[in-house]
Amino acid sequence: MANVQPYSRLTDFDIALFLNGKHTRLYEKLGAFEIEHEGTVGTFFAVWAPNAKNVFVTGNFNYWDHYSHPLFPRWDSSGIWEGFIPGVRTGETYKYGIETAGGEYLEKLDPMGLYCEAPPKTASIVWNTYKEWKDTQWQEVRASKNALNAPMSIYEVHLASWMKTLENDYLTYDDLAVKLVNYVQEMGFTHVEFMPVMEYPYDPSWGYQITGYFAPTARFGDPQGFMRLVEAFHQAEIGVILDWVPSHFPGDAHGLYNFDGSSAYEHPDPKRGYHPDWKSYIFDYGKNEVRSFLMSNAFFWCDRYHVDGLRVDAVASMLYLDYSRNDGEWEPNQFGGNHNLEVISFLQDLNSHIYSEFPHIQMIAEESTSFPGVTKPVHMGGLGFGQKWMMGWMNDTLRFFQKDPIYRQHHLNELTFSLIYAFTENFCLPLSHDEVVYGKGSLLNKMPGDDWQKFANLRLLLAEQFTHPGSHLLFMGGEFGQREEWNHTQSLDWHLTEQPAHRGIQETVKALNQLYRTEPAFFSKQFENEGFEWIESNDQGNSVISYIRKGETAKQQVIVILNLTPAPREAYRIGVPLPGVWKTVFNSDKVEFGGSNYPVSGATMTEEINWQGKAFSIAINLPPLSALILKA
Which Pfam families match (predicted)? Predict the structure, then answer.
């Protein structure tokens, strides 16, 4: 019998919380911790494996001997195995050797491990999350930066392919803390969102098939390296949102699947525990220990890594029992419906707990259906998220912009329909990675027409996104008109930014971010219907739409006019809410954006001509395929 000593960090209260699905800080109790015990330095190990016959720790320290270091099962039938191994220090690789009830021997990573070997290696590494943070200033202003009435312009990034070295290697977390932070700041985004950074074995999953839920991927450096990246964003006054995947996990032999020879983490019924689309496994949300694991994981990134929000992936796949399933492949809930009631209660629990502990973060749901009340508070029967992705806007808008402008007059409703329901939830408008992969083409190449029209259309699309009510998100590459669709194995085509047309898209996004951040009309009421008013939503003859965005005062109002065809409109009359001079504060057709510089007055005086229900109006030239923004 090897030198494993009985020891525990867990109190009776911890066990009670864990077994009731209410433990939100399991990462303080389970996993591997270098400590001093009875004068000896070593590591305390604790793992939940409720159906294991025996659990061992194996690693370099015992030459990967399967059976030399057994852990002790707790006496309280919590399913936790624990023990202290002298001499094992931070930096040591290890796995859990699990002897199943059926006599099989499995080698598993630590579900609560803080660091893993870089793939394709699969062991956990004894580590800590100690750091002296230098982001106090950000923490003091975060409430105002993350509020629903503050600008939120999100740059979505896949760290492995944003930029690479000349040798086609990954940039490290420390490289990114300089290059990526400077770039996001220069472009004027308020937040960055990382596609999953938790450890994942398979590159083509882009991080959405996670094995190490508590470990930032070792591809780019160690956990403290990732902390320095978050800190650098905070020092630049940019918020950090992480994609978080509580919906499913892969079947890799070293991961959570079949963890102790049984379905510890996944639902035992394949109708609820197996995901046909992604060939992955679905968490058992009715199991309290699993709920504690997931809640603790969400808390962990907010607590230890100071992140400012979580974008919860694939919420629709969690909410519906029949998601992607045919008749006979799913079973209704106790009331005969198709909602997963365990998921609803889990998400409500999660959002209630996390907002009470971290009130100034944003929980954002990627939810693609009309499920009601995603962003309603839990006490009003909602799921309690802060925001929800507006997939309907994305689908309709891209479909509209892909049409040849000659046909657009018959489809204006595709562009205006989102305003019918825009204020039923707190919506974030996403042009995400999902729209530029698998043969869908880049944003630029979705646009019709010759090259000039493609670029003009893309500027117009971006202006529509930035001026539509809600917060918004743009996937990397879209901000300079990447021509090729996204490829996760290679860097973005940064050389394009040396070409005037692509640089023009970049300058457009910079200008839109600047306007969005500085004009209260665009953010102070972005989730309220009082912040929006149509001027004209149905001028089919000209294919022009126009609307007012409103701030707290009448003087903060701005007008947006979108000319959706390549035909310029001379002296186009539009009703305005206030008399006086209306100044053009943005024109997507300006030469520095790559436009034609069609003559547009910088300032236009109102006339007392009643138009579109307004007592005053102006006549203004509209350049081809352009967006104009005017301010009184």
Answer: Alpha-amylase (PF00128), Alpha-amylase_C (PF02806), CBM_48 (PF02922)
